[in-house]
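Lab meeting, action items carried over

1. Structure of the two-component assembly. Owner: GW. Status: complete.
Input record:
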Amino acid sequence: MSLTPPLVELDTASFSYPESTRPAVDCASLSIRGGEYLAVVGENGSGKSSLLRLMDALLLPDSGTVRVSSMPSSSPEGLRAARSLVSLVFQSPPDQIVSSTVEEDVAFGPENLGLPREEIRRRVGAALATVGLEGMERRATLFLSAGQQQRLAIAAALAVDARCIAFDEATAMLDPEAAEAVLDLMDALVASGKAVVHATHDMAEAARAARVIVLRAGAVAFDGSPAELFEGGETRLDALGPSLRLPPCARLASGLGLRPLASEGPEALAERLAVALGPRVATASEAQASTRRKSPIGVAQRVNAEVPPPPAFELRAASHAYLKGALGETPSLMEVDLEAPRGKVMALVGRTGSGKSTALQLLDGLVAVTGGEARAFGESLGDPRTDLRAMRVRAPLAMQRPESALFERYAADDVAFGPRNLGLKGAALVERVSRAMSEAGLPYDLFRDRRTRALSGGEKRRLALAGVIAMEGEALLLDEPTSALDPETKLSVMELVLGKGRRGSSVVMATHSMEEAAMADLVAVFDRGRIAAVADPETLFYDLYDPAWGIRRPFAVRVAIRLAELGFELAGPSGKRPLRVEELARAASRAPASGRGGEA
Amino acid sequence: MRGIEFFRHVSIGRYLGGDGFVQRQRPTTKYLWLLALMVSGIASSSYLGAALPLAVALGLGAAAGIPPSFFLRGAKPLAPLLAFVCLLQLAFSWPGDATPVLLALGPFQATEREAWLAILTVVRTLSLMTVLGLFTAVTSEGESVHGLEDLLAPLKALGLRPQRLSLAVGVALRFVPILAGEMEAIAKAQASRGADFGTGRGGPISRARAYLPLFVPISVRALERAEALAEAMEARGYVEDGRTRLACYPKPRGEAASRIAAVVACAASFVADYSLRNR
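Predicted assembly:
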């Protein structure tokens, strides 16, 4: 249709990393035009990052060509075009900052273009205003939040006047609020005529784009609209790649026998569902529904009435400040009271910087309280007589991105580090390591002699978790164990965590996924260093929820609430309101009888 | 102190921002002060000469709104190393050392001269760390790169590339706190698997041994971070030649006086040194 040449064009482009036996990008052909919004999906290791790097000429194809503005990226002028017309925003926020102040960082690109000072100043100002960082020019980049760092990277792309901005899982390490801000910026960029390429694991994010590409083993397996992609349901997706899952809206729709739409909000889906369920019911049930939402007090009492078993962990008026007494002192927790009961899974949610990680590290004795008290299994961690090492071993903590602490050459040796510290040797050691590895989904016989460095991202995460599981402590502390994993690996890690809970371990895990939090027994919401609420997920997401927490309700809950407003109160057999898409689908399939009968 | 917080003790490479009299000096002036104080700290052989840069740097730090504790904390991780060096100073004698023996333990004799030299080592190290800490606290990475480029600009005539060196210096300084942060995360991950960090127990040898498993992942992370930085710079079209600058450094009031003061401070330490030696 359009006669203008594509902005970026891949023509049977292939690329292999030197040490690898199979290509990372395999004979990929596609073209991107100005103003286009394209999502690239595929499992860990399917070649998404490499594809983006080919577009930016950070990698050059081994065969085939990549053209930017009609010039091959292998030529000097093509390289210049690629670097100035295509900008990359990477996954890890701190890794892409090149300067120590906000202003210097945004100016770095324009300086490389040799622009005059006044022009650079104008562009820096405009770019910072677009991403909402104006007034922070002189701020040290070290002190920005992860979300601010990602927006800074977008500003840097705008300042070189890039016509295509490629995001490499740029929301994977952000909290929901910051991720939403970046996604909104993508929409705004497209509206202003920029092309956006977004590589992501998250199908709901991908569905926001106008066009989706599915990569499988480096090859383009699908190229079309999200609606076309989701039309065939899970079976179609399974054929394209085992780790692809429908976004919650499409999963729910197809579970209910409705046509899956690409990017449907929970409200719209609820309305469609209401139509399918039958005529609108009487207002009595509507009134009932709204009073129920307005009176959380009764529900809170219900929570308190349950007598919890003696806690595994306690924080009593616990405070903590980083760099206490030093320059740059930052309070992270303020007089927090929290109890994690034994044998339960507790999820900690809240914005980045709200104190979740600090709380976990306090519970493990890795940092010390600067006020109040932290106790584990009834023992005070601040007491100088407490053996901190013994306490840590009883409740090992998997830090954020635990794979970055792997250090042994062979997989099994790394898992053995902890048990060896416990004094295990010989057959007992092998048995312990083997048990932990198979629990983490890495069968000992297959993986013990694999080189740690050669494992995939998902395997490294599992290996690191195996190292923590091998401690066989009474409790497990996990800091965002599923972050930046593909949906399939996320699920298997969550199953592992929940399995631990079912077998009687106490688990406390921080997460940014409300879908995951909804699977826990208890959820604690952190807000700016304080606890905003603690309750079971149903009560928390239905009755206590406050948008000021900076988290969103799980998708199924948002649909159910809208349905209740429309007169359909959905509940499971035990009267439990649905938290997961599958639960909602089951409840809705029973609804024609119970939903309409509700008001009789 | 129980608990693990490495970042607390990092005073080098942490740009703190701010817009005071010290921060507003042009990068070249800051380099001049850095050079003047470093030279007097290294070259002087008297306590006064070695302590002078420390005092000046702490004073300038206070003027920039940075408390002395910020700099002195940075010396703590070096304490075991310093103790070791002092022990060597005391254990081995200097030829022709005729100063009184303070302490004799079998074949080992600690003389007055050795004791003074040990103290000098400590003072000198504190001086140098404080001066470098002050410089990086008030100089952003861009400023340190630009300043060095300007200072080394004459070398271009010899066909050398000062940009490369100044970028390397700027990046190296910035990596100190980054690596401290990475090291803290890895130490915590291993402590939670039973490694002995931050428990306040154990002798110096067992403590030192606990750091061995840190070495591999921290090296790997350092390389990964370096690679990520290189890639990010390349993605933003980094070129060595033909770069322009956003930053302009207006000449602050009293610049000449400030530069003369730097030279005078350096000279003063030499004069103090000389007069003490010849007394």
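2. GW to write a short summary for the group page. Key points so far: The domain at 304-555 of chain A is CATH 3.40.50.300 (Rossmann fold). Residues 581-597 of chain A form the longest helix (17 residues).
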